Amino acid sequence: MEIKGCLFDLDGVIVDTAKYHYIAWRQLAQKLGFDFTEKDNERLKGVSRMASLEILLEVGGIKGKSEEEKQAMAAEKNANYVDLISKMTPEEVLPGATDFLKELRKNGIKISLGSASKNAMTILTRLGLVELFDAIIDGTKVSKAKPDPEVFLKGAEALGLKPEECVVFEDAAAGLEAAINGGMRCVGIGSPDVLHRANMVVNGLHEMNVEKLNTIK
Ligand code: BG6
Ligand code: MG
Question: What global pTM score does this model have?
Answer without folding.
Answer: 0.94
